[in-house]
Every structure is written in C-alpha cells, then in structure tokens.
Amino acid sequence: MKSIIELKDVKKTYQMGLTEVHALRGVTMHVREGEFLAITGPSGSGKSTLMHMVGCLDIPTSGSVVLDGQDISKLHESDLAQIRGRKIGFVFQTFNLINSLTAAENVELPLLFQGVPESERRKRSNAILEKVGLADRAGHRPMQLSGGEQQRVAIARALSGEPDVLLADEPTGNLDSKKGAEILDIMNALNKEGVTVVMVTHDPVLAKKAKRIVRIKDGMVEKEE
Q: What pLDDT, in 10s, does the model give residues 113-135?
C-alpha cells in the first residue's frame, strides 16, 4: 500500500515574542493510501501542529512534507490552498457550518468555490447527505439540527470535493458518547469504501478505533501502534 502523505524530519518552530517554541522536533511518518490513522497525544504535544502539516495548512520550518508525490514544503499559500481544495477534506470539532445556509447549501459551498455547475452541486450534495443519513434534513439550517446531525453535515461538506484524504480534528469532541459513536461509524464506513481517514484526538480510547495509531509527545513521535 503506497503512502499518500510522507513527513521527513519535519521541524516547526514558532516565534512567540522573544521565545522560540519548538512545536515539532523532527517528525518522520507516513499516511498510507486507504488507511484509518489516529494521531494522538496530550495537550501541548504537537499533534495540532502535526495536523496542520498533514493537512497542508502550514509548512515546516525544515524537513519535507510530500502529498501524493508532490513536495509541498516550499509552496506559497495560494498553491497550498489549491492542493487542499482538491485533495483534503476537513472536519473540525466545532462543525464550522454557516447558519444562514441549509444543510445542502453548506455541503455545496466548496463546490461553488470550485465553479461546479448548480445542477451538479445539487446532485452531489443530495447523494452525500443520503450517505451520511441526512437526506431528509437537506433543507434544514444548522440551528434546526442536533450536534450529531451538524457534524454529519460537516463530514458531507468535507466529502463534497471527493478528496483523497479526510482529516478529522477531534470530530466527536462536542458530542455525547452515543452521537460520537455514530460519527465514528460513518468514518469507518467511508474508510471501508476507500477514503483515507486521519483523525487527530487527545482521547486514547477514541484513537484505538483507528487501524493504526501515531503517538506524539514533546513534538516527536513517541511510538506507532
């Protein structure tokens, strides 16, 4: 199974006033195509910074990040944004839905930015909302949906551009255990269909739901399971 994302000796240093913060201290790891990977570690371990690297949200201070054969380490933000839009779908703990739009319109938003025609946008959003069990809620706005339903809409939106990788940052963090389990079931089902899933979580119990775990501590890979 080939690697879709490779990090080689990635270091990331932030300047906080007069202080240098070494968030990553030489991380080497990979994400295999079609796998379900969890990145976990305590607060301050560097896992959020690592997520930014894996998701092409930031570039390293040194080292390289290779996404599907392309080294993105030296790219400008405009180029990174294009790559993110084509290859990575994001799901966040806080849902990040637009309250003035319906569920279907939220799902269609990335496609609108990509210039996809309206008829194709609607067709694709309907199909994805059905996949996550929300076909009957397409016309509802976020405030009319439960937290679990909002997260399903967020997953559907992340999938609308048919990305290679679904990157989920604490996807069950704002949900009760029942709704959280439902979200994990959806992510597992998507993974079985061939979607590469990378989940970032501080919860070791949640991490064990993935097929492979990378544990981060003090900005370095502590171990892989």
A: 888 999 999 999 999 999 999 99
CB count in 10 Å sphere of residue 219: 23
The architecture (CATH level 2) of 3-224 comes to 3-Layer(aba) Sandwich (3.40)
Among candidate residues 53, 90, 73, the one with its CA nearest the CA of residue 164? 90
**Contact predicate 15/38, CB 8 Å:** no
Q: Using an 8 Å Cβ cutoff, are 166 and 50 in contact?
A: no
Q: Which pTM was predicted?
A: 0.92
CA–CA gap between residue 147 and residue 128 (Å, rounded): 18
The structural domains of the chain, with segments of one domain joined by +, span: 3-224
Q: CA-CA distance, 62 to 8, in Å (whole number)?
A: 9
Q: Is 144 helix (H, G, I), strand (E, B) or coil?
A: helix
What tokens were used for 92?
Answer: 């966040």
